[in-house]
Design a protein that fits this description.
By secondary structure, this protein is mostly helical. It has helices at residues 21-29, 33-41, 48-54, 60-72, 94-97, 100-113, 116-121; strands at 46-47, 76-81, 87-92. It contains 7 helices and 3 strands; from the N terminus they run ααβααββααα. It is globular and about 50 Å long.
């Protein structure tokens, strides 16, 4: 898929395996990198390289794949500016912004769960 190919939204996810709404949430934001990417976008628009720097253990390809899935699910917008070289930014949609309380709760829970030693090594996201 090249950058000029539009990403078509996919049908809304369903809880086909368990019938539980938690399954739907996890199908959209589940995994290691999606919640971290979304958390960083809470502060506003970010360019691709900035996102990659914020999740340095994820490969650029993995970040790209995660961003594409989030865009397909309507959680983020990809904004391409007609410049040379092209500038691309990502931002949360209204649907993505509605995940803020979930993401903040995940951060709080993680800080509480981490040991004192681990907590000192964690950087407090936005």
């Amino acid at each position: 898929m090249n950058d000029s190919t539009p990403i078509l939204p996919r049908p809304r996810r369903k809880a086909g395996r368990t019938g539980c709404a938690v399954e739907v949430t996890l199908s959209v934001i589940g995994g290691l990198w999606k919640p971290v990417i979304l958390f960083h976008l809470l502060d506003g628009k970010l360019r691709f390289n900035a996102l990659c720097r914020m999740v340095p253990n994820a490969t650029a390809r993995m970040v790209t794949l995660q961003l594409r899935e989030l865009e397909r699910d309507g959680v983020i917008n990809r904004i391409v500016y007609p410049e040379v070289p092209p500038r691309v930014e990502y931002e949360l949609t209204e649907l993505g912004r509605s995940l803020e309380p979930v993401l903040l709760s995940m951060r709080s829970w993680g800080m509480g769960f981490a040991s004192d030693e681990d907590r000192q090594e964690l950087h407090v996201c936005p």
